[in-house]
């Protein structure tokens, strides 16, 4: 417990899975952390409950109507000191507010990009859960981190594990520090052992029932297609200045090794723990100190064995698509991410079969030109273009209906 004043935190995406885990950790350390702002897109009841419990200075929601509703509820609860606002401009404001020390980026999807960049440009400690922002804008994002002196701490469990296993000063190239490869572990998702024909009939609820992690529906679907591992491969390239060929994906069904770093002398360092996002979140909040995350210590005798397998890219082509997009460079990862967001939503809405996700992403990328990702405008333009194209292909092609 710190004796200095509490660190002020903006929590973007407070009502989501990462948001709730972050609230849990902050709630355990009220003297060390204080919420400046909490945000949500639509879940107004949940945001109201969070306001009641934590009394942040500000709350931000998607629409004016929901903001009016929230204000009325807070008035009734005599919590009028909580300032309520709505929309993207308010998200940017709470991300760069001068009194804020740390911003947890836990909005899902491309919507997280601008608020996260705003926090980076304000030189904050940025706890990065939102991988889509980095996948879209990689080079630009990392340049902004160094230009504005932001402290970027990866929260995605694999990247947090790698961060913990790297030497403190790993900037300046992995090989200069004797690192030979990064081993990105993957649970393999709920369909690791399913045949291709069984995969044709997967429903959204089956895809969202992850064996080891409880997460939002978008990332759960990404875990089931292995696109999540593909996005994470791109994320790792940017975070650790690694080439795709320096990263090996290792399927590890127990999900207790969260990733590893291989060194030139043959050593491999692994970070282990129960699969619970409160561990990387607590690490990010307290770094370089360590605090209690409220997680049971790992019982190695209960785990008893650790298995490792190579990923099967024939059944899970999304991993290969992501690797190819990273190799193509420029705006290709942004287009991959945009097409995937459209495909996953269509799958969750029952408009696209499970195997159609990879097909739609592939078809979108094949019809998309790669441009140099040298400005945010270009990236956002390519994001919009890939979304439109994916929507159009979804309605034109035969993978669209009947099989979901
Ligand atoms: P979730 O769907 O549970 O929550 C998403 C949050 O973002 C909600 O608070 C929602 O209100 C908000 N949001 C959604 N759309 C928005 C928009 N357009 N504008 C503003 N806010 C919006 O998602 P999650 O599982 O918590 O994941 C959040 C991010 O963290 C994702 O990028 C995911 O890839 C990453 N991540 C999650 C986990 C996990 O265990 N859940 C692990 C690693 C990384
Ligand atoms: Mg992860």
UniProtKB/TrEMBL annotation:
GO terms for molecular function: 1-deoxy-D-xylulose-5-phosphate reductoisomerase activity; isomerase activity; manganese ion binding; NADPH binding. Mn(2+) binds at residues 156, 158, 232. 1-deoxy-D-xylulose 5-phosphate binds at residues 131, 157-158, 187, 210, 223, 228-229, 232. InterPro entries: DXP_reductoisomerase, DXP_reductoisomerase_C, DXP_reductoisomerase_N, DXPR_C, DXPR_C_sf, NAD(P)-bd_dom_sf. The keyword Metal-binding applies. NADPH binds at residues 15-18, 42, 130, 132, 216. This is 1-deoxy-D-xylulose 5-phosphate reductoisomerase.
């Amino acid at each position: 417990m710190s004796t200095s004043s509490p660190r002020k935190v903006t929590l973007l995406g407070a009502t989501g899975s990462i948001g709730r885990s972050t609230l849990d950790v902050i709630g355990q350390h009220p003297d060390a952390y204080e919420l400046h702002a909490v945000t949500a897109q639509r879940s107004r009841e949940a945001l109201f409950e969070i306001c009641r419990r934590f009394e942040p200075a500000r709350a931000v929601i998607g629409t004016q109507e929901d903001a009016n509703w929230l204000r009325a509820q807070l008035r009734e609860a005599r919590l009028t000191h909580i300032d309520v606002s709505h929309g993207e401009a308010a998200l940017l404001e709470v991300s760069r507010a001068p009194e804020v020390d740390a911003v947890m980026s836990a909005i899902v999807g491309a919507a997280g990009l601008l608020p996260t960049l705003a926090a980076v440009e304000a030189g904050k400690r940025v706890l990065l859960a939102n991988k889509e922002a980095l996948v879209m804008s990689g080079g630009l994002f990392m340049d902004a981190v160094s230009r504005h002196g932001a402290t970027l701490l990866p929260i995605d469990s694999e990247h947090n594990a790698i961060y913990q296993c790297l030497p403190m000063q790993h900037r300046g190239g992995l090989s200069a520090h004797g690192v030979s490869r990064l081993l990105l572990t993957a649970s393999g998702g709920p369909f690791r052992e399913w045949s291709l024909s069984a995969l044709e009939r997967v429903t959204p609820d089956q895809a969202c029932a992850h064996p080891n992690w409880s997460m939002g529906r978008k990332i759960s679907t990404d875990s089931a297609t292995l696109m999540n591992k593909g996005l994470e491969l791109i994320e790792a390239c940017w975070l650790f200045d690694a080439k795709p060929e320096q990263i090996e994906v290792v399927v590890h069904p127990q999900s207790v090794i969260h990733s590893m770093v291989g060194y030139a002398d043959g050593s491999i360092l692994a970070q282990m723990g129960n699969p619970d996002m409160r561990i990387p979140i607590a690490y990010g909040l307290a770094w370089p100190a360590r605090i209690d995350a409220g997680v049971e210590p790992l019982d190695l005798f209960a785990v008893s064995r650790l298995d490792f397998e190579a990923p099967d890219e024939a059944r899970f082509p999304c991993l290969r698509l992501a690797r190819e997009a990273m190799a193509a460079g420029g705006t290709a990862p942004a287009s991959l991410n945009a097409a995937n967001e459209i495909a996953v939503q269509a799958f969750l809405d029952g408009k696209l079969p499970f195997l159609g996700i990879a097909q739609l992403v592939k078809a979108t990328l094949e019809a998309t030109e790669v441009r140099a990702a040298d400005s945010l405008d270009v990236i956002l333009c390519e994001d919009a273009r890939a979304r439109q194209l994916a929507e159009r292909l979804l309605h034109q092609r035969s993978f669209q209906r009947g099989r979901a």
